[in-house]
Design brief:
mainly alpha
Length: 261
């Protein structure tokens, strides 16, 4: 196969969107493409976590296609084109790395991130930390958004002294949830549940653990152990619906023990 470059992909997209192009591609808008953009990003992450390089090549291509697709739609509207996107990111990377492309000194990751944040604030005319927090996208997964907001608060010293204090806050929030969960005020219960989750994210952040990934792993572990329970029950000609909770718990603990061997 002949070697291809980005111009080939741009040509393909232009043809798909052209007069005699694909009906599906011609019908798409920036709004209709949003779910596909999100899906492709998740599939890239999934390939990375599975360490599947073949899939990663394919999924990165699918993600790149989304960038090209959105750029083509913008070009048709007369707003910008793909090369404006490339030019913009090139300028941004140069501007935000003055320790490489300028005279600024930054020898540690911390110094690099501090410079990056300061430059970003100047670019976007962000004058307060709360403005910076408000810029964290609301569509971002909730645990990740909480993590980002907490990081921004910590940068100006609004943070727990240590992990122990953050853990005590989790205990406090759990107690507050216990006080209201049997009541009828659903809004209050939801509020306290949110406070508990936010406090748990703070603990994860101080332990330098990504709360989103930690919960993802815990969910996968639950599915794996539940699968063991289901399989073990089937081997004994039993259906879960017919078993007591105690019987299922016994199989659960058995599966848990097997994982530790």
């Amino acid at each position: 196969m002949a070697k291809t470059d980005i111009s080939d992909l741009l040509e393909i997209m232009a043809k798909l969107r052209g007069e005699n192009g694909c009906p599906w591609d011609k019908a798409q808008t920036t709004e209709s493409l949003k779910p596909f953009l999100l899906e492709e990003a998740y599939e890239v992450i999934d390939a990375i976590e599975r360490n599947d390089q073949k899939d990663l090549v394919e999924e990165l291509g699918d993600l790149l296609l989304q960038v090209v697709f959105h750029s083509r739609l913008a070009e048709e509207r007369g707003d910008f084109d793909f090369y404006d996107v490339v030019s913009g990111i090139c300028q941004k990377m140069i501007h935000r790395h003055p320790h490489i492309f300028g005279e600024v000194k930054a020898e540690t990751t911390g110094e690099v991130l501090k410079n990056w944040e300061e430059i970003k604030r100047e670019e976007k005319d962000i004058k307060t930390q709360s403005q910076s927090m408000a810029k964290v996208p609301k569509i971002m997964p909730a645990l990740m958004r909480a993590y980002k907001v907490q990081e921004k608060a910590a940068r100006v010293g609004f943070d727990w002294d240590d992990v122990e204090d953050a853990m005590n806050k989790v205990t406090e929030e759990l107690c507050e949830l216990r006080e209201v969960y049997k009541g009828s005020d659903r809004d209050k219960i939801r509020e306290e549940m949110g406070d508990l989750l936010f406090a748990a994210v703070n603990v994860a952040r101080l332990l330098e653990i990504d709360a989103e990934l930690a919960l993802k792993d815990a969910t996968s572990k639950f599915i794996r152990r539940f699968s063991f329970v289901e399989q073990a029950a089937a081997e004994n000609d039993k259906h879960l619906q017919e078993m007591t909770l105690e019987e299922m718990d016994e199989l659960w603990e058995q599966g848990k023990s097997n994982e530790k061997k």
